[in-house]
Structure formats: structure tokens, C-alpha cells
Amino acid sequence: EKKLNTLRNKNQKSAIIFIHGFLGDPKLTWGEFPAFIQSDFLLENWDVYTFGYSTSFLPDIRGIWSSDADLEKLTLLLKTEIETSPLKGYKEIVLIAHSVGGLIIQRAIIESESLTDRLKCLIMFGTPSKGLKKSIPLSWFKKQLRDLCQDSTFIKELREEWDNKISGKFDFELCV
User: Fold this and answer.
1) Close Cβ partners of 173 (under 8 Å, ≥ 6 residues apart)
2) How far apart are the two ends of the chain, measured CA to CA in Å?
3) 25 and 99 Cβ atoms separated by less than 8 Å
């Protein structure tokens, strides 16, 4: 399954990347929004992509099998895409994320100087940046849901590292 989907690539200097959330899909989550963006003449010099990853309600079997990657692995996957061709060639990047996609992006920003240097705008919709209380009852069921818990290691480290490395020290627009 392709993780990075090209919607428009005219070899511009700037790119917009859409990232879906938990139980989302690169096409279904965003609907016609990417097409709307592409039709705006003010954004004709921006290439457009979606980044997808596996997420489902299939259960994990601890220590044996995980139906979907945890958020750390998804962060690594996103960073790899951003730091390799075709995305490595863009001088400016705008990231638009929904839900868990926003958590993955925040982690990638902390870990990737290359991304931080090129990031112009981060837009997040419904991102549980401080975790979700409602994921606690299902945290035994799936690693992605355990990562979403308010007291999870992933959320605690994300908030601490964001405050130390990024908060108030970034050169990109942040819209939530």
C-alpha cells in the first residue's frame, strides 16, 4: 500500500500534505478538500499530497502481533517520506492533519530538523494533543489507542519535548 499519494506534482518549490487520523483514510477523510485547494489559483504553485497509514479496529495481541503500527513507527514513516524524494526537494511545506495525524506530525516536527526548517504552516483539526480520556477503556485492545491515553508515555514525552524544543521557538504558523 502506497503511503504517499500524489494529487498534484508540477515540480514546484512548495507542497501541501494531508494526513488523516485514527480509522481515517487518505481519500475519505479529506473528501473534496484537496481538490478545492488545487482549484484555488493562489495555490497553483503548490504541489499536493496525501500521506496514509494503516489504522483499524482490528485488535492487537500483545507481544505477538500488532494489527497497525504504533504512533512512534508512524512518525518514523512520515519522517522518512518527508526526508526522501519527492518531498525532500520542497523548500516550503504545509501540513494539514486530522486527529492522530496531528500527533504524528507534532512528533515528526520535534525529531526532524529538516522538516522544522521547511515547515511554513501546521493546521490540525480535532487533534488530541493532550491525549484522550475516552481511549483508556480500549487501551488494552490496541497500541494506537494506548498511545492516545492522557497518561501514555507517547503523550507525556510529546508534550514535554514540544514545550522544550518547539513551543514559542518556531517559525511556522500554527492553526488548531
Assistant:
1) 120, 121, 122
2) 29
3) no
Q: Are 57 and 23 in contact (CB under 8 A)?
A: yes
Give the span between the Cα atoms of 42 and 49, in whole angstroms.
17
C-alpha cell at 25: 483514510
Strand partners, 175: 123
CA dist 4 and 83 (Å) reads 12
Strands 14-19 and 46-51: parallel
Phi–psi pair at 6, nearest 5 degrees? -85, 125
138 alpha-carbon distance from chain centroid: 22
Q: How far apart are CA 103 and CA 100, in angstroms?
A: 5
Mean pLDDT in consecutive groups of 10 residues from the start of the chain, 176 residues = 89 97 94 95 96 87 79 95 95 98 98 95 97 77 88 96 90 94
